[in-house]
């Protein structure tokens, strides 16, 4: 198969769909790789590194899209990229379609086979291609949250860890999944007071065991959420409903009642965000202050640590890229029910129920199309 790797064009996005070692693996299996010029340069993978393992470097994205059967990316395609897709071409990347009608419609119109990393599942009910970026974003959320609390950022001027004689900050994490647990790990390590709210008692039990009581695990209800959010210095939004729009757990009214100078980090912003006051920001301009609360809502958080994030992502995605390339998308999807869950749009039809429901579009069972 002819596989293309374009350079990411989202604001401050330095990750790349395939690193040279992944390209080398695919080439040994008989596939041809076409990489856009400087696609990996932002994180130290030069064009020569790709040439050395057998890839061909192309001058621009147009050439990459025209010459390949499958496009492997990181972030959702921007408008110009959607226009370059053609019927029957495979797109394998993060999509996050539920909160994005414009992109959804553009991919429907393209006629392409659009497979989303974030809805591929595994035998344990996990999201293996979302997991590495959730780990990165969870750990980063405390890092950026600590910065948001600094007075120079508009925060209250609190040191997350405190010092002898001065209490540490209160960190409240909404959601005890991969993001939430990774955020808690860093926050606990820094010495913050940490609370995780979740409405799954099994998750709360796992948290209690994992952190040996160093994290307060609380069942999430409207009453407990309000009480802990109002006492928080830093709130991490880490709630995910696979494929669907994130629930708005914290209302604008509750934001208004928070302590001035507190900060909220919305890790769920790719799926629409779980704070009612959230709107997507960029690494170039990552925060804004509303009602005295610092909001950090960067939609591609892991790009700030793009080399680590790219390597972690490639370790997860390469087996699936290989399967799609070796078998073709029809056989690959029929052979792997978990990869089939990743199919969001196929030849102009929406094949993920959550996306169809989010936009009031017709849903088509994927098996009818492949």
What's the gist of this structure?
This protein folds into two domains: 2-120 and 306-368, NAD(P)-binding Rossmann-like Domain (Rossmann fold); 131-299, NAD(P)-binding Rossmann-like Domain (Rossmann fold), CATH 3.40.50.720.
How does this structure look, described?
- 37% of the residues lie in helices and 16% in strands.
- By secondary structure, it is an alpha/beta fold.
- The chain has two domains: 2-120 and 306-368, 3-Layer(aba) Sandwich (Rossmann fold); 131-299, Rossmann fold.
- The strands form two sheets. The chain has an eight-stranded mixed sheet, sandwiched between helices. It has a seven-stranded mixed sheet with strand order 9-8-7-10-11-13-12, sandwiched between helices.
- Helix 6 packs across helix 7 (178-190).
- The longest helix is centred in the C-terminal third of the chain and has 30 residues, at 306-335.
- The mean pLDDT is 97.
Largest sheet data: 8 strands, mixed
Strand content: 15-25%
> What radius of gyration results from the CA coordinates?
21 Å
Tell me which CATH architecture of the largest domain applies here.
3-Layer(aba) Sandwich
**End-to-end distance, in Å?**
18 Å
